What we know:
- The protein is of the alpha+beta class.
- Helices cover 45% and strands 21% of the residues.
- It has two domains: 3-65, Thrombin, subunit H, CATH 2.40.10.170; 69-168, CarD-like, C-terminal domain (Methane Monooxygenase Hydroxylase, Chain G, domain 1, Up-down Bundle), CATH 1.20.58.
- The chain has helices spanning 69-80, 90-103, 106-116, 127-148, 152-168, and strands at 13-16, 20-32, 35-44, 49-54, 64-65.
- InterPro entries: CarD-like/TRCF_RID (IPR003711), CarD-like/TRCF_RID_sf (IPR036101), CarD-like_C (IPR042215), CarD-like_regulator (IPR052531), CarD_C (IPR048792).
Amino acid sequence: MSKTGLDFSVGDHVVYPAHGVGQVQGIETQEVAGYSLEVYVITFDHEKMTLRVPTAKARTAGLRSLAEGNVVTQALTTLKGRARVKRTMWSRRAQEYEAKINSGDLISIAEVVRDLHRAENQPEQSYSERQLYESALDRMAREVAAIEQIDRDAAIGILNKNLIKAVAA
């Protein structure tokens, strides 16, 4: 694959499903078992981690660009919706929430944030609910922050405003 045939360039913010927003630091060629392999070098500052994803497998691995404006709008609208909590066992719901978070899909992550959000006047969350909520909120905030070029805390402020409107409605 030629350098111009790549989906991402150095400096691009990208989303990797299991880790959220990272930045392409470089494109390297590595020798693996006698084969030459071109990889994206992606850093995730919030996890202090570097990931190498083969350029040829980037799309199938789920690597994608930051969400477009209409997807962000749809995700924020999702936050304003009514929570949809299935009447299944918590362990099953927790698995579904985890899968949505790790899908890397902004709208799916927004659904988890919406469903697990608790207003001041609502009952306390369990530890595992709070962990999943924080994980989804953080993942969504980091992507919104990268898109809007603001810091994570400002992005959380935007998300909370949308969540509060949902509760007030």
